[in-house]
Amino acid sequence: MANPSDSSRASPAAGSLDQDLDLDLDLDFTRAISFSLDTTSAVPTLGPSRTPNTEEELSIPRETIADVIGSSRLHAELVRPIRLGTYNKQPASLLCFHFSFQRLSESWFTRVRAATITIEFLDAPWDASKGANPSVADFYPVDYNGPTSYGQVVKNTNATLQVAPLSGGPSLGTGYSHEVTVPLQSELHVHGVRTGRPARNKVVWNVGEDQLKKDGVPREMWMPIIVTSKQPRRFSAKVTVSAHYAIIRGQLANMVPVIGKMDEPLYFDPAALEAAIEENRTGLDGTPIAQNMGDFNEKSFSLADYSSFRASKD
Fold it and tell me: 67 φ, ψ to 5°?
């Protein structure tokens, strides 16, 4: 597995509020900025691409989940080897998902300000006699904050009071002006939740940029999940990534499907993965397809070791 790198470890930045107009903080001030935009090349290509499975990939999941290229390149993959073991004495798989957000332009409006990553696990095919879907036993991160950035903004308050005399003479007026410097702080934030019933079979992560630094979401992210089932059986994983671009505002900015809508699910067949381990099968780069890990409940095991969000906050 590639060594995860914490993309949010940059030292805290200090400075005043810059000229970007998309700071989503609750500040009581307004600003008007005019600019021109070449819409033929600046707006990211938001349409997803279809990634079909081969015959083998209906049992052993493909490495590349999806790859979308526009003004930004968004790449998602399943990291090998796939690690098999047990969790609370049930068959389990440790799956590490890797997401890359590569900016092909340094223009601020192609920056990915936030992303929503959704991964849902289902039986493949569904069999009511076998009970619920696979369950997400553990995942990481749950609630992560990156290094804090500090800044400030100057707020001005102006008021004018005018009184017109009853005699009809000239009006009298007085003015008031007050200026105050407000300190600000912000940080990268990653928050994940498990959903689904009766089995919690879905993970949703929201990733938001540091709104002072305005450098987008981390360009490389590793997100590990442990999936369990009461008995080994084939299951699928549907991965969807929605990105929020700086150029897009309103409802469209919140749910633009970038990866996953038209891409086929990943399929996991425990029997095929066990056979790959016994046969020492590898990918084209020599990395094993799968490996046995034993008990994921061991004290020496840490799911955070497989994530890019391991560093302390400061």
Answer: -145, 115
Residues 6+ apart with CB under 8 A from 215: 111, 209
Residues 67 and 75: their CA atoms lie apart, in Å, by: 5
Listed in sequence order, the residues at least 6 apart from 283 whose beta carbon sits closer than 8 Å to its beta carbon are 63, 80, 289
The pLDDT > 70 percentage for the chain reads 71
Q: For residue 175, list its beta bridge partners.
A: 160
In the chain, DSSP assigns E strands to 14-16, 64-69, 72-87, 90-103, 112-123, 135-139, 143-163, 172-195, 202-208, 220-228, 235-245, 257-259, 266-268, 290-295
Using the predicted structure, report yes or no on whether residue 90 has a pLDDT greater than 50.
Answer: yes
Both tokens assigned to 310: 């391991």
Per DSSP, 304 falls in state G
pTM as predicted: 0.76
Q: 244: which 2 tokens?
A: 């929020």
Rounded CA separation 51/34 (Å)? 40
In order, the DSSP letters of 82-117 are EEEEEETTEEEEEEEEEEEEEES---GGG-EEEEEE
Q: Are 12 and 311 in contact (CB under 8 A)?
A: no
Helix%, strand%, coil% for the chain, nearest 5: 10, 45, 45
63 phi-psi bin (left φ>0, alpha ψ -120 to 50, beta other): alpha
More confident position, 5 or 174: 174
| Residue 36 reports pLDDT greater than 50 | no
Torsion-angle region of residue 205: left (phi > 0), alpha (psi -120 to 50) or beta?
A: beta
Buried b (16+ CB within 10 A) or exposed e, 36-49: eeeeeeebbebebe
Q: What is the DSSP letter of 249?
A: -
CB 245 within 8 Å of CB 253? yes
